Amino acid sequence: MGGRVTGPVFQLHDWSALLFVLSAVMIGFQRRVAYAIALAACAASLPLQLFAIVPGRFLGMFRGELHGHYPDFAWAPWALAGIVASAAMAYLILRDWNRKPLASIR
Known about the structure:
Blueprint: H1 6-26, H2 31-53, H3 55-60, H4 77-96
Helix pairs in contact: 1-2, 2-4
């Protein structure tokens, strides 16, 4: 699905969804590993969200002929919400990275 540029972007976004699920499963076993996986998922989801908001600039980074006209900016509230959510998640992960886990209650 997709073209020479958008095909890999869609595949990367699919992988990011799987990484988010894997991170949620791993949080109970290895907190730092889960955090690293979640950061990778945040980074992997960013290209599709950027493509939705700034398609002209995004496609301008790659060589080749573009099919159609792409605006420099497109209002995409869901993509913007995804970027804000990913940034918030990355901030919370990096803030909590070195904290010690809570002691179990006995």
